[in-house]
Structure formats: structure tokens, C-alpha cells
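Entry 14. Structure prediction run on the chain below.
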Amino acid sequence: MKKNLPLIVIFLIVNTVFTFAQDNRFSKVYHSNDNGSHVQATAMAGNDSILIASGPYYGGLHLFDAAGTLHWSKSTGYAIPKDILRTADGHFVVCANGISNSILLFKIDIAGNILWTKKYQNETTSFASGMHLSANGDILLTGHTMQSTYPYNKKLLFLRFSPIGDLVASMTYSLESGKEVGVAITETQNGDILIAGLTKGNSSWAQEMCIVKTDAQGNLIWAKRRTSDNPSSNSSSIDMLSNDGLIFISGTAFDASAFVLSMDNEGMIVWSKRYTGIGAANEPDYRPRMRQNASGNLLVSYSIPYMVGTVIAINPEGESIWSQLSYMTQYDTQPLSDGGYMFIGNGSILAVKDVLVPQIGFVRVNDIGEGISCTEPMSSPAIDYPINFEPLTYTSEETGNVSDYTLETSELPLDSFIGCVSVIGNTEERPDRKNSLKVQPNPGNAPFLLNLEGIHNEAVASLIIYDSKGKQIYQEEGSWHQLQLIERNLKPGLYLIKVTVEGFDYVSKLVVAEE
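Output returned:
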């Protein structure tokens, strides 16, 4: 036995090294100090590399490998990419908004060189949202048009392009309410088109999920809207994919932080489930993505913008397999060849030196969504969630034309750091709000300082602190100056800070780093 001991020790050492060598997990953040980089869309680019489109003020395209290394980064200026597809020839098509009230469709190679660009326009302003590559290589696109004057009516938009960008079909679908928006698009096994989008809800401000089916040329077959007896009914964060004759649609609703439904090609529901998660934001422009891995399981991402997110893995029957809290605004979950995943989102919680700079966050996780940082297991069991629909009667019309366009790109340097938390700091929930709540880290072990401009020291205020799962852990009322300091006795993690003063709520984040 003693003679074999060195061999056993060597085997254990080699096996341990091999085991650790297989752990490719990491957390990394990229950002641009000039204009920021919010994730708009992603696409796998071969060998587990990922092409990412960013915005929302200036457009960007960035190629990363599976280790989170940036290979190139280019600015598309005021053309803001909204979706990316990888084509059969290994190139990519990108749709973008922001140029002359039109939609740009352009094709790039793996090095980011533009191969061709087309501009779609009509008599109104047009916006792209989602794309799908058809079985014959055509590019299917949905979005909406909008009048430039009040009441700014919107029409759901369907476009079909050939593989070289020629316009094959162009249709809009409208109701008198003028609230129609296309979000995601797919193709059925027989070549028909399904579009998931949003339409008017039960109140003037509410929006509801709608589903539209057309033939390959956009001729309307049927349309329907999700119904509810609740006057506050609301849907958002819609995405859709198809596989093996089934259609899967994900989203959030007023009574469901997250839901997924499966239906057949004729729109008959096979199952519908809701899940506990971080979601249900009324953000029509925020579209977290749903993906499917090699086993057929769905990876569904949810978030409230500027907050944490959730990734839920479910099987094709809708049952939850695992779920993880993601310490960023979760946008996408891409399956990798080793069985793990890349969580991709906006790292507003992955704090950089300037916490207001938008960021691209990567968290590479294992096969059950566990990262070395930036993730936290949570329970999201599937619960039956009946969904009903009512028919819609749309007016459809052909509209618009396509012309050649020249789009120029330029280099867009990105800075990066490794890790989930680099400073003790915060990011505001409403960065566009002029007087927003700031949490300022003091040196050493001094308390965190809350700051609101223009608030009198004696103003009556309330302070509530929530942990990352939304559980209230602290509450206090008093004069504003009495509530401005938070002692550093919080465990490392993510917290939501809510201050109510003078009739207004102010919300911010606090990330407490490891010592």
C-alpha cells in the first residue's frame, strides 16, 4: 500500500488541477467612458464567441470570446442596433434605428466589416425590434411605425427581406387605438409568420400581449389579444421562439413576475406557467431574451431595468429546473459548448468608478447557472397560469420602400475590469431623474451617506432597505438629516434603498463589497 501512495498522491494532484482547469467561470464588465454601452442584442459567433450590440444613445458592435476577451469594438454612431442574426454563411445581419426616422438593415462579416446596408422608410417614423431568419434564408423583421404628430399612433410592422436585403414584403397592422407594437417574430413549420407584440390593455396606460399570424407575404390569417378582468392588467418583456412545431412565448404581467406559454402553430395553448422572479416591469423597449439549449430546455431571462435579474431554466413542459439571481439587469443567457452558460446584461449593479456609466456585464456560469460571483440561487417553481385570448380585427396595408445606404463605423474603445463588485457604491434606478437619490461611500468604515439635493434637513422622511430578494430588512422614519447615514453593518451583497420624502419616492442601489 505504501508503495502505491506516491502514485495516488500524484493522481489526486493531477485530478485536482484538471478539475480546476475545467472551471471557466468568471465575471467581467466592459464600459465606454464616452457614451456607455447598454446591451441591446446578442448572437453566438462560433467557438462560443459572442457578438453584442449596444446602445441606447450611440450604437456599438463588439465581439467577445468565451473568456470574455474583447476582439474588436466598433461604433455605429446614431444607428442603434436592436437585433442580430447569424446567417448560414457565418456573417451577421443587424437591424438598427435612429437614422432619418427609418430602419437600417446591414450585413457584417466576423471582423465587423460592413458588406451592405439597406434603409427602409415610409411616410411615418419606423422602429425595428426583432428579427428571425427564415428557412429559405430570408430575413423577417418586426417593429412598429409611429406618427410624428399627436396622438402618435402606432402600427405593428412586418418586413421580409431577401438574403441580400431586397424588400420582399412590407405590411402594417393597426387598430383604432393606435397602440400596436411588434416585438418578436418567428416562422412556423409550414412557412407562416407569427409575431408577438403589444396592444392596448384595459386602461389608457396599460398594454397587453398580442399574437399575429400571417402567411409568408404578411397577409393576415388571425390576430388575438391576451384578456384579463383586472383593469390594471398589463404585459411586457415579450420574447418568442419556435422549435419542433411548438411556439414558446415569455413575458411578464401584472399578476406574474414571469410567465412562459407554449402553443401550437394554430395558436392553441399547450401549457402556460408563471414563475417567481425579478420582473414585471412596464418597459416596452426592454426585451429580455429566451434561448433554448441542445437538450431542448428553455433559458428565460427577466429583470426590472436598473435592478437585479433572474435566469430560469425550464424543460419543454414548463417545469422549473433551476433558477439564479443575476446581479445585473439580465438581458440574455447564451448556452455554451461545455454545458454552461453566459449571462449577459447591463452591469449597472456591477459598479465601475463612475456608477452612472452604462456597462456590458458578463457572468460565465456552470450547467446550473452558478457563477463564482454575481449570482445567487433562488427558488422559482412553476405554477399553472391560465391565459385567455380574444380575437382582434386588424386593418392591414402595404407600405414603405427600401434603398441603398452607406453606414460608416469607427473604433469604439472599451475599458474593462474583472469581478462583480469593484467599489462600494450605487446606481440610481432613475438616472434620467434630475434630483435622484445617491448613496455615497465614505472612506474606511464610516457610514454610507444618502444624498438628495434640495431636501430640507428637518423634512419628514422614511427609509426602507430591501435585500436582493426583495425582503425588507430595515425601516426607519424621522427627519431627513437623521436618516442620511447608514451604518456599515450590512453583509456583502446587493440592497435596494428607498427614501420617501415630501410625497416622492426615491430609489437607489447599494452594493456592499467583500472586505
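The longest helix spans residues 5-21.
Filed with the rest of this week's runs.
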